[in-house]
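Need tokens for this chain, all 155 residues.
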Amino acid sequence: VRGEINPGLEPIRKWTDIVKISGTSNSMVGLKSDGTVVAAGSNNVKQLEVADWKDIVDISCSGAHTVGVKKDGSVVATGRNEHGECDVSSFKDVISAETGIYCTVVLKKDCASQEEFEKGIINRATLMVNMPYAQDAVQQAIQEGYIDCPLGRSR
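Here are the structure tokens for all 155 residues:
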């Protein structure tokens, strides 16, 4: 840690065995090498309720909600859910996740054959967005070539 941090984030100075961090100036999560997640900071909308998460391979924290990708490709989320940002139970075969203020965006495995899937070869990815009013913008970005993948909807 360098610089001045929010006093609520002081516990991060003692974190060990961390392989990834994500958060804001008020809320922070850390992914440990054993697949568990630690958290510090403001938990005003239960965005840091991650103590029982296990087998996590990726994390993202927006400050209002936190998302974790599990080893089996499923997704867990906690925190504010005003816009469906925590409605992630339908996501499967996910390899990465990011949180926005009002959304969760994931990359999903989408392989050409079962053999490639079993070998873990990823030859294309599906972008899934669970923020209904972003669907048109993402679709336009795909059409204009800014995102090179098909769009899947979670709803």
